[in-house]
Amino acid sequence: MEIISNNLEKDKKDMRKVWEKIGDYFRANSIWMMWYCTGCGAIEMPPTMTSRFDMEQLGMGPMATPRQADVLLITGYLSAKTLRRVIYSYEQMQDPKYVIGFGSCTINGGIYYDSYATMKQLDHYLPVDLYIAGCMPRPEAVMNGFDTLISMIKKGEAKGWKHYQENYDWYHENQLHSLGEVYVKDEFHE
Amino acid sequence: MNFIYAFLLLLFAFFFQTSITGINRKVMARLQRRRGPRWFQQYIDIFKAMSKGSTSHGWIFDFGVIMALGGIMATAILIPIGPLKAFPDVDNIFIITYLLAVGMLGMAMSASGSGNPWASIGVSRALTNMLAYDVPFMVLIVSFIFAFKTSSLSGFAALQQGAGVMGWNFFRFPLGGILALICLQGMLGKKPFDSFIAPAEIASGPMVEYGGRHLGMLFLLHEFSTFIEVSIIVHIFFGGGASPLEFMIKYALLYTFMNIIAGVFPRFKIDQAVKFYYKVPLALAFIQGLIIIFTGLGVS
Predict the structure, then answer these.
(1) Which residues contact B97 (CB under 8 A, 6 or more apart)?
(2) Which of A72, B150, B155, B256 is 20 to 30 Å from B26 at the Cα level?
């Protein structure tokens, strides 16, 4: 009983060091995003960025390349073709990094649930930190989701990137299962 | 002792310019009818970038960033703040101009070292932009050196003090003043002269492969180079400042004005920018130079 209690206590305790907490404060209040326009969610991003909703008041803004970005937004369904590119982009981002899935399609395929070419569960291939409900989520829901992500980062709960590193074999196996091996190694085939 | 002053000057330059940048992000947001971030958002961005991991593309990539930042910081310590100087008698416009080039070339070396074609395109645009605005600007500066027999920033500033606002070179040489502001826009890399960091066209150009700590150092570089460039114009055209506070106020107003100009312009293509600089500003520079040489108008 005492052992179990100690384990539970340890699991709940915040394991972050002081410097990590300080870093997480900065990372929570300055999130640069890269969104991959895979589906209809992309159309919600311009109003979220511009004067009506203004995500910059949260310290968020768009960045041009995965090297610079902190969060990858999957704004709809992924096909087999786009999933490969999304994985490449994710792996080019610097740690720590986060993924947000928009809408039903990233959870269960949404209206494409029976399509042969659509990915049904995004979190089998990438570690999703947060889903935003809706088909498609409105800018209010997107802003609410960003606020939730900020809170998760401050508390040290957004650890998908660690999970990806620690369970890379499982993710990679799923990726290979859906995408297959690339045999021609050049800039046009990978 | 000079190096302590130099270090304090660098600290001042960082905190002052980063705060001004943060406030100006708020100003830009208001121009676009947005609320914008908090005034200290720029600090958070820099420290966030510093707190993340980074990917290297070889020693040229890494060393170039350090060379760029080191070169710009070395230039920044030569800038007077009002009457305060870390190294007296070294705030020469030619020394500052050449040291600025060290930072730019370090940046070019590093970005090219990443192997990304967007970086090479961005760097070539940045250096082309630099060539474009430097020619008319230096024609103007040489005219001023001819007129005032000094090439010292604090010397230029001292000659304008004591005569009020109308004593500023900006009003004594209106053509030169307009030209200086146009060139400052190019120096700062703001619209319409920001084709080398176009996010949608060349994925932010030189910055395409930088992330984490590398990007943090680039943000620092940007703050210091902005401080240098705005300070040069404040000293040469707006009287510098009889006190540090006066200098800071002039600086903040000038920088905010340039940002407001940027907020209402679209982007030039790089060839449009070069053609523009070699037509209008270069013509203004020559006209102002001829006026100074042959009539002495404004010199007293």
Answers:
(1) B134, B138
(2) A72
**Exposure of B104 in the CB half-sphere (CA atoms within 13 A):** 22
Which is it for strands A130-132 and A60-62: parallel, antiparallel or unpaired?
A: unpaired
- The reply to whether A113 falls in a domain is yes
Answer whether residue A185 is part of any domain: no
Which CATH number characterizes residue A42's domain? 3.40.50.12280
Distance (Å, whole) CA B7 – CA B69 = 15
B104 touches chain A (CB under 8 A): no
Q: How far is A49 from chain B (nearest CA, A)?
A: 9
Min Cα separation A4/chain B (Å): 36
Domain presence at residue A79: yes
Distance CA B136, CA B158 (A): 24
Tens of pLDDT, residue by residue over B123-142, are 888 888 888 888 898 888 88
- Taking only the tens place, the pLDDT of each residue in B228-281 is 999 888 888 888 777 888 888 888 888 999 988 888 888 888 888 899 889 888
If you count DSSP H runs as helices and E runs as strands, how many of each does chain B have, helices first? 12, 0
Question: Which of A51, A58, A94 is closest, CB to CB, to B54?
Answer: A94
Span of A114-123, A135-144, B196-205 with lowest mean pLDDT: B196-205
The verdict on a CB contact (< 8 Å) between A68 and B215 is: yes
Numbered residues of chain A with Cβ closer than 8 Å to any chain B Cβ:
22-23, 26-27, 29-30, 50-51, 54, 56-59, 62-70, 92-96
Structure token pair of residue A117? 């070419």
Closest CA to B187 of B225, B218, B221, B154: B225
**Two tokens, residue B232:** 């040069």
- Residue span of the structural domain in which A89 resides: 30-179
What is the C-alpha to C-alpha distance for residues A30 and A24, in angstroms, rounded to an integer? 10
Decide: B282 and B205 in contact? Cβ < 8 Å: no
Is residue A141 in a domain? yes
Place of tokens 């003090």: B161
**In A89-113, which positions are buried (b, 16+ CB within 10 angstroms) versus exposed (e)?**
bbebbbebbbbbbbbbbbbebbebe
* Sign (positive or negative) of CA dihedral B174, B236, B282, B293: positive
Per the structure, how many domains does chain A have? 1
